[in-house]
Amino acid sequence: MADRDDIPPVRLKLRLVFGDRLTLGPGKADLLERIGALGSISAAGRAMGMSYRRAWSLVEEMNAAFGHAVVQSTRGGPQGGGAHLTPEGRQVLTLYRELEDRTAEAGADQIVALRGMLGDMPQGK
């Protein structure tokens, strides 16, 4: 069997499906994180390689699904527009990131075992 050092590090992607109300996964969490950092839905979308329309759609979906808005936005004008995470939005992001960390920690032994079971892969795959 090949040396396991040739396998890239394992990334855990957690996706929570709340029935037909909401799917919360790494993409939406990353979008929230970037909105918080950049203060703009369009800048956050651009940083992720997504259109403003798609970013806005995801924000609307999350705002509608949670009991309180997770992102508050203001339209452009003389002072320019912007967006920020609400306290609920910061809490959603924090809880999601904590759940990612706990899941990775709890499953670390199984992840190592699965990684060790991987077969050789041809170059380019």
From TrEMBL:
Protein name per UniProt: Molybdenum-pterin-binding protein MopB
Organism annotation: Jannaschia rubra
Gene: mopB
Coiled-coil regions, chain positions: none
